[in-house]
Amino acid sequence: MADRMDFTRTEAVAGPKRPGYRTFPNLNGDYSGRIELGKPRSRDEIAPPLRTLIGEILAGWKRLPLVILGPTGTGKTCAALAFADAVQNPFFLSFADLIRLNFAPWDQQAGMWREVERSELLILDDVTVGLDSENSLKLRGETLWRVLDVRERRANSQTVVTTNCRREKLADSFGPACDSRLFCGSHFELFGSDRRFEQQAR
Ligand SMILES: Nc1ncnc2c1ncn2[C@@H]1O[C@H](COP(=O)(O)OP(=O)(O)O)[C@@H](O)[C@H]1O
Ligand SMILES: [Mg+2]
């Protein structure tokens, strides 16, 4: 079997044995517990320089957090999950679900924050600024800051963030405290067209 840590090799991440990911119940109360995210993902489909960067992070040469930026469909979530395949016990959290959880009962919120604090690897997927209102922007900024701050203060806590916003947009919207905590490690910007549509066209 391919070495799980060796990101310079391009074999697919072991398919059927791929671990599920712990995630958090959504507000409808359905608790998925572990999610597989259904998609096959292979290392050779990750842009080679990003694959190299992930390998360097896993080897300890480059620092976390890792921020993967790029438009919708460029492969951010798949790359983050391929990273997660190489570590123990990852916790996957969609930023949209995290925001919605601000309105959930306190015990649900507490359970989620415990995971955010303790997980060795947190994937915070699809951080967006949101266009709806000033209040929503403030809530997003405060929630993001809280996640990053909690993670920063804890040893052995690796964080991978994906976003379809540019760095400047994130900094403008969420301020320097988030910018500093997000971009103090490694980041990589993906370009290109939406791969979901490309697959459709094939
Ligand atoms: N590493 C990969 N292995 C296999 N398929 C991939 C990979 N990266 C992207 N894809 C394909 O491109 C689609 C979009 O990728 P995704 O990671 O969901 O994009 P994003 O998170 O940027 O919107 C996926 O559904 C998948 O089919
Ligand atoms: Mg995504």
Structure description:
The protein is built from 8 helices and 7 strands. The chain is of the alpha/beta class and 202 residues long. It has a domain at 61-201: P-loop containing nucleotide triphosphate hydrolases (Rossmann fold). The strands form 2 sheets. It has a 5-stranded parallel sheet with strand order 4-5-6-3-7, with helices on both faces. Strands 1-2 form a two-stranded antiparallel sheet. β5, α5 and β6 form a beta-alpha-beta unit. It is globular and about 40 Å long. The chain starts with 20 loop residues before the first strand and ends with a helix. 29% of the residues are buried. The model is unreliable at 11-18 and 26-34 (pLDDT under 50).
Tell me, rounded to a whole number, the average pLDDT: 83
Bound ligands, named by name, code or SMILES: adenosine-5'-diphosphate, magnesium ion
How far the N terminus sits from the C terminus, by CA atoms, comes to 31 Å
Number of helices: 8
The portion of residues forming beta strands comes to: 5-15%
What name goes with the CATH superfamily of the domain at 61-201?
P-loop containing nucleotide triphosphate hydrolases
Strand sequence of the main sheet, in spatial order? Answer: 4-5-6-3-7
Q: Tell me the major beta sheet.
A: 5 strands, parallel
At CATH level 3, the topology of the domain at 61-201 is Rossmann fold
Multimeric state of these chains?
single chain
H/E element sequence = EEHEHEHHEHEHHEH
CATH hierarchy class name of the domain at 61-201: Alpha Beta
Radius of gyration: 16 Å
- How many β strands by DSSP? 7
Unreliable segments of 5+ consecutive residues: 11-18, 26-34
CATH architecture assignment name of the domain at 61-201: 3-Layer(aba) Sandwich
Which secondary-structure class do the elements indicate? alpha/beta
Q: Give the overall shape.
A: globular
Helix amount: 40-55%
